[in-house]
Amino acid sequence: MLDFRPLTLADKSWISPILAESGYMGSEAAFGTLYIWQEAYEKKIARQDDMLFGCFGKNACTYFFPYAKDIRRALAALLEDCEAANKRFRMWGVTEEQARLMEAAFADTFHFRFLRANADYLYHAEDLIALAGRRYHRKRNHLTRFKRMYEFTYEDITPANIADCEKIEREWLLGTDNPTLGGLEKENFALKRSLDSFSALGFKGALIRIGDKPVAFTLGEEINPRVFVVHFEKALDGYEGLYAAINQMFAERQLYSYEYVNREEDMGIEGLRKAKLSYYPAQILEKAVVTLKGAVPGD
Prior knowledge:
Blueprint: H1 12-22, H2 31-36, H3 38-41, E1 44-48, E2 51-56, E3 61-63, H4 71-85, E4 89-95, H5 96-105, E5 110-124, H6 125-130, H7 137-149, E6 152-156, H8 162-174, H9 184-196, E7 204-210, E8 213-224, E9 227-235, H10 242-254, E10 260-262, H11 270-277, E11 283-292
Parallel strand pairs: 3-4, 9-10
Antiparallel strand pairs: 1-2, 2-3, 4-11, 5-10, 5-11, 6-7, 7-8, 8-9
Helix pairs in contact: 7-10, 8-9
């Protein structure tokens, strides 16, 4: 069986190069994604020779797509591990590209069920920066009104202002109906891990103040030299154009060297989906739940 264990920050030095070399653009292909959500979803990793494996959950063999040069060998190791544990095989977050690799390795073995709510939204960084053309007319107007209406300052996130991000998060949570529902409790825990280990994780982020009050922040990390993933973006209510401002300003100042910005999934939330579509993604990266053909249907 594979020897799965929790991640540590020290694992970043060897895991990040493997993830970056794969060229995958999904949010799962970032060390920070694994680390900050580790305790919320009981994520673990295993290493065997030159192969990296991941899984999550306590009572099921739910794997991530393996990172290996020999995909057939890696998949065989996962199938053997699941059989040894006497559990049903399940894999989560598999892109269409990865699904093709699985089919080529083991034809007519896997069943793929793509879930729109889990799809990542990828944008051209230059679109988020320039907001050019007719389709971004409303976004430019929101940004222009924000700049005219408020005396604001923009700053990169550093150890000196992380406490201000935590202050925004606390106030943002007070505005929610129930911070323990809808995954917000897990999200808050993942955000805390992000801020506690911000520098060690190699994250980048931005903070906006209006007057002396911190009102918005965003943060994320590089997946590979082509793609940056935004993990969190929070803005307080009552400030017109604030989300448009933190989005554009962060992209302009820190994401200009990337081809794509991955802003993760919409989780099937109608308002969030509408907001993400309003920025005209270059690609919607759909991801599947994978089971074995002939297995009992379901997740």
